[in-house]
Design brief:
This protein has 3 helices and no strands. With 88 residues, it is mostly helical.
Length: 88
Amino acid sequence: MAEDRHEQHQACMERFIELANSMKNEGIGVDVVSWSLMSASALHAIYSVAGNDGGLTESGIEKITDAYKQNLTKIQALKQRQAQAGQQ
């Protein structure tokens, strides 16, 4: 089951990146695509925690913010390892 979730995560992430690249290729600025994707992600994160009509408390905002920060940290570390491996 865990592997299925990992595979689903990877496939979904690749689809989002594909869509973002399509928007970029249509002439939309990378900054606009990135901020739009982040806004959509934030809206969906709120929905997944609080539903359509709910809102987040300050602690809910902090939990989601921490999750984003952890994800950014992991991805950045991975990219740095890949860059170092490519230099060797």
